[in-house]
Write a structure and sequence with these properties.
The protein has two domains: about 35 residues; about 30 residues, no CATH class. Helix content is about 60%, strand content about 0%. Helix 1 packs across helix 2.
């Protein structure tokens, strides 16, 4: 599969030089680096929180979530009505 990425000029030059030093191509160097990075044991590095865990909710949605609007069996319409009446 082919893809296009933007690499800062200085990083590109360093990578190209390293590839020449190793007697390899830039493509092979990038593929090797990706394989190494993706092959790391996730338990040895601190995991980055998933996007879903890092997101910031809209205040209205957060209030509904805290009120239990999205729990199984919750009547969302009733909770929304209560929120409107209270506000």
């Amino acid at each position: 599969m082919k893809t296009t990425i933007d690499i800062p000029e200085q990083l590109y030059r360093r990578a190209k030089i390293r590839a020449v030093e190793l007697g390899s191509s830039l493509k092979a160097l990038v593929l090797t680096a990706l394989e190494e990075e993706l092959g790391k044991d996730p338990g040895k590095t601190e995991p980055r929180p998933l996007y879903f865990a890092r997101r910031k909710l809209l205040p209205e949605y957060e209030a509904l979530l805290q009120a239990g609007a999205f729990r199984e069996g919750a009547d969302s319409a009733e909770i929304v009505s209560q929120e409107r009446d209270a506000g």
